[in-house]
Design brief:
This protein is mainly alpha-helical and 385 residues long. It has helices at 6-9, 15-26, 45-66, 70-91, 98-107, 114-124, 134-152, 157-160, 186-200, 207-221, 228-243, 246-249, 252-258, 260-271, 280-314, 321-336, 343-350, 354-366; strands spanning 31-34, 39-42, 370-375, 378-383. Helix 4 packs parallel to helix 16 and helix 10 (207-221) runs antiparallel to helix 11 (228-243).
């Protein structure tokens, strides 16, 4: 049998045949039992083939990313992160625009989403550490999620706290995934998370299947409410940054958003009693989303590399060595970044003096070679196409 789920088969197979198939898959050497056998995952040939394709694409993506210099990497990651956070905020019904997020990255303006933005900033700066224990989850929760919850849910924070003592009524109409079973109480939540972490850190299983199982166990124990869906994606971004690819770390939400209807349907099918606890269908769907997302990301970075090469060849501007360095930075900001660079950023990142930067910027303005966006108290500059 390939990746087709027991849930899909159950509509066609007689009950006794279905039970035999479930027993066969659960007794397979490739079967991983979870939660004392309540849920399980069969690592079949279709999944293995998909993992191999993903591994090759991640290798190619990392190769292309590593060819960029540090400045370009920073511009690219920040631009991708802004798109990633817009996807996250959209799911949480939070208002944000590319400009407001870019403004925050530059000026650090405080707002209720400060802890979330700072958490992602640490990911793209490589300052996070692998998630190994329940205390690691607790620390990320307290630094990234809890500050925002305290602002917005001060009166009900005990109820909605991730490691809550009080039960949450599963099936609350405000829940996005109100069909997920959920777990009540801190002790049971920790037990489920320990199981999820055990899978996430198994070195004998590929990182993509591990991340899929972790994501499902997280969602099934913690239905969508008050940032838990976002928190699960954030934890996987930390995992990908540390063990797979920093570029993949800031694309997960965008990948899921493109297939949101299919993703939600798959979660619902997997939670069904008719599925007999088989996670194989969910894992395959999750891996398919990663694969298609990687195709999109590879195409994006290749297009940017080609656009940078073409734009560099078109620019007709003569100047000193410093001028050429500034022009290259502004061209990189145009192709790989968001809204550009301020004169102060150019000076600090290039180690060129402010008077020299200002003279070059004036010459570029006079030549009509600059796109200028005013944000806050500064102009942000990019080379014109």
């Amino acid at each position: 049998m390939d990746h087709e789920s027991v849930f899909q088969m159950s509509a066609r197979l007689p009950k006794d045949v279905l039970e035999q198939e479930v027993r066969r898959r659960k007794s397979s050497l490739n079967c991983i039992l979870l939660n004392e056998g309540e849920t399980w995952f069969t690592y079949d040939l279709a999944t293995f083939s998909l993992v191999r394709i993903i591994t090759e694409k991640v290798f190619e993506l990392n190769f292309l990313f590593d060819q960029l210099n540090d400045f370009t990497k920073t511009q690219l990651l920040q631009s991708c992160l802004i798109k990633e956070m817009l996807s996250d905020f959209k799911v949480q019904f939070l208002s944000a625009t590319p400009k407001t997020l870019f403004n925050y990255f530059i000026y650090g303006s405080p707002n209720s989403n400060k802890s979330i933005i700072d958490g992602y900033r640490e990911i793209i700066e490589g300052k996070t550490r692998s998630i190994k224990t329940i205390n690691d989850i607790r620390k990320y929760y307290e630094s990234v999620i809890l500050p925002r919850q305290i602002i917005h849910h001060r009166k009900t924070i005990k109820k909605f706290h991730y490691f809550r003592d009080e039960p949450l009524r599963i099936g609350d109409p405000s829940n996005r995934f109100d069909f997920i079973r959920g777990v009540d109480g801190e002790a049971n939540i920790i037990k489920e998370m320990d199981q999820a972490l055990f899978i996430l850190n198994r070195q004998d299983l590929d990182p993509y299947s591990r991340s899929a199982i972790f994501f499902y166990l997280f969602l099934s124990s913690m239905p969508y409410y008050n940032d838990n869906y976002f928190f699960a994606k954030f934890l996987l971004s930390v995992f990908y940054e540390n063990e797979v690819s920093p570029f993949l770390a800031v694309h997960l939400s965008q990948m899921i958003e493109r297939y949101e209807e299919w993703f939600t349907k798959t979660v619902k099918e997997t939670e069904s009693k008719d599925n007999h606890g088989d996670l194989s269908h969910f894992v395959f769907a999750f891996l398919s989303i990663l694969k298609d997302g990687l195709d999109f990301s590879l195409q994006e970075i290749k297009q940017k590399n080609k656009a940078f090469k073409n734009l560099t060849a078109k620019i007709q501007f003569k100047g000193s060595k410093s001028d050429k360095q500034i022009v290259e930075m502004l061209t990189q900001a145009k192709i790989y970044g968001s809204f550009g660079l301020s004169a102060q950023q150019i000076a600090s990142q290039s180690k060129i003096s402010m008077p020299t930067v200002n003279r070059c910027v004036k010459k570029l303005k006079d030549a009509g070679l600059l796109d200028i966006t005013h944000l806050g108290k500064r102009d942000f500059l990019r080379i014109k196409e």
